[in-house]
């Protein structure tokens, strides 16, 4: 467990820089905090725990206090942020809570001069993500699931435990509880099948465990292979986008030149362009509709003005240019 964390320290440009662990109070993030604390002391790194209070559970105040208690045991300061979850975005409560959590983590990072945050996602989480993306419909980049390292809002997030089974984490949590009399909190939504990820965990996982033991490791391995394939496709998409008379701000390209690409590469470069502009990756059905509309447009775009709302963005075409803008600015 600590070996995977050492790789994070090796990848940070300044190992003495302040790092944070996103800590909910659950077993996974608590054990990540405990192991990171030991390594931070060894390396002379300043560590801080970030806790996001979503306010979605009546027990949330107690969880915040519980994380404070963990910080005292580990000798690490804790910073808490209260997230504002907007359930009216149409994204669903799970996605809305995730966006609010990352926004709160970014704000905490700015307040405490932190550029690197550790996340406790593990092999089981990765396998669930692969399954969910398969069921929702996704491209090769989506099948790569969660990346070991990602950039968001100017912060570098690290997931050192993506290849680690949750069984070993729970064993560590049990030993920690016996030593310190500190027990991880249990979020009831994690076992509530009304929530999509919990439905996979509670209803589907037991069936897979019985029929295909160790399936999580195989799906996590599949995600790593998909990530390698995705990296190659990313290079192809970058090269294609450079041929589309891309605007200096990266927000528009030539429809006529895009239409000159082979069909598969049209889709590939469009996904790449959306990602560069911070847009959500569309489902297969949404992408098919967007491709259909773009392919049916007159090459100069004079016959009609296409305008497609996609999550928090709007994609439109005018005078032969395909452009993306935030919805409130379009």
TrEMBL record:
- CDD domains on file: TilS_N (cd01992)
Q: What is its main location?
A: cytoplasm
List the Pfam families hit by this protein, alphabetically. ATP_bind_3 (PF01171), TilS (PF09179)
**A biological process (GO) annotation for this entry?**
tRNA modification
- Gene Ontology cellular-component terms listed: cytoplasm
Enumerate the catalysed reactions.
cytidine(34) in tRNA(Ile2) + L-lysine + ATP = lysidine(34) in tRNA(Ile2) + AMP + diphosphate + H(+)
Keywords associated with the record: ATP-binding, Cytoplasm, Ligase, Nucleotide-binding, tRNA processing
What is the superkingdom listed in this entry's lineage?
A: Bacteria
Q: What Enzyme Commission number(s) apply to this enzyme? A: 6.3.4.19
Looking up Gene3D superfamilies in the UniProt record yields: 1.20.59.20, HUPs (3.40.50.620)
Check the UniProt entry and state the signal peptide residues, or none.
Answer: none
Q: Where is the tRNA(Ile)-lysidine/2-thiocytidine synthase N-terminal domain?
A: 19-202
Instruction: Provide the residue positions that the database annotates as binding ATP.
Output: 24-29
Q: What class of enzyme is it?
A: ligase
tRNA(Ile)-lysidine synthase substrate-binding domain residues are 254-322
Instruction: Indicate yes or no for the key word ATP-binding.
Output: yes
Q: Where in the cell is it found?
A: Cytoplasm
Q: Name one GO molecular function term.
A: tRNA(Ile)-lysidine synthase activity
Q: What is known of its domains?
A: The N-terminal region contains the highly conserved SGGXDS motif, predicted to be a P-loop motif involved in ATP binding.
Provide the function of this protein: Ligates lysine onto the cytidine present at position 34 of the AUA codon-specific tRNA(Ile) that contains the anticodon CAU, in an ATP-dependent manner. Cytidine is converted to lysidine, thus changing the amino acid specificity of the tRNA from methionine to isoleucine.
User: Which PANTHER family does the UniProt record give?
Assistant: TRNA(ILE)-LYSIDINE SYNTHASE-RELATED
For this chain, the family text in UniProt reads:
Belongs to the tRNA(Ile)-lysidine synthase family.
The protein in question is named tRNA(Ile)-lysidine synthase
Where does this protein come from, organism-wise? Answer: Bordetella genomosp. 4
């Amino acid at each position: 467990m600590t070996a995977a964390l050492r790789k994070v320290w090796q990848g940070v440009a300044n190992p003495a820089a302040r790092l944070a662990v996103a800590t909910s109070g659950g077993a996974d993030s608590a054990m990540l905090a405990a192991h990171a604390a030991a390594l931070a002391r060894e390396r002379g790194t300043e560590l801080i725990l970030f806790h996001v209070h979503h306010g979605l559970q009546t027990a949330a105040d107690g969880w915040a206090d519980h994380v404070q208690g963990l910080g005292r045991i580990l000798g690490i300061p804790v910073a808490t942020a209260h997230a504002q979850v907007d359930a009216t975005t149409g994204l669903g409560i799970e996605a809305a809570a995730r966006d609010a959590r990352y926004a709160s983590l970014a704000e905490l990072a700015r307040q405490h001069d932190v550029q690197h945050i550790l996340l406790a996602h593990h092999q089981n989480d990765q396998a669930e993500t692969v399954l969910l993306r398969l069921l929702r419909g996704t491209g090769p980049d989506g099948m790569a699931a969660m990346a070991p390292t990602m950039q968001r809002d100017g912060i570098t997030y690290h997931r050192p435990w993506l290849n680690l089974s949750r069984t070993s984490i729970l064993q560590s949590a049990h030993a920690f509880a016996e030593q310190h009399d500190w027990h991880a909190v249990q979020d009831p939504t994690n076992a509530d099948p009304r929530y999509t990820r919990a439905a996979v965990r509670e209803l589907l996982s037991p069936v897979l465990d019985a029929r295909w033991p160790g399936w999580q490791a195989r799906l996590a391995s599949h995600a790593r292979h998909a990530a390698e394939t995705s990296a190659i496709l990313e290079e192809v998409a970058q090269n294609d986008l450079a041929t589309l008379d891309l605007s200096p701000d990266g927000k528009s390209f030539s429809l006529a030149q895009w239409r000159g690409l082979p069909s598969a590469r049209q889709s590939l470069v469009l996904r790449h362009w959306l990602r560069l502009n911070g847009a959500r990756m569309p489902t297969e059905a949404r992408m098919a509709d967007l491709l259909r509309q773009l392919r049916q447009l007159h090459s100069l775009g004079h016959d009609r003005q296409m305008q497609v709302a996609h999550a928090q963005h709007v994609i439109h075409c005018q005078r032969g240019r395909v452009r993306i803008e935030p919805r409130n600015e379009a």
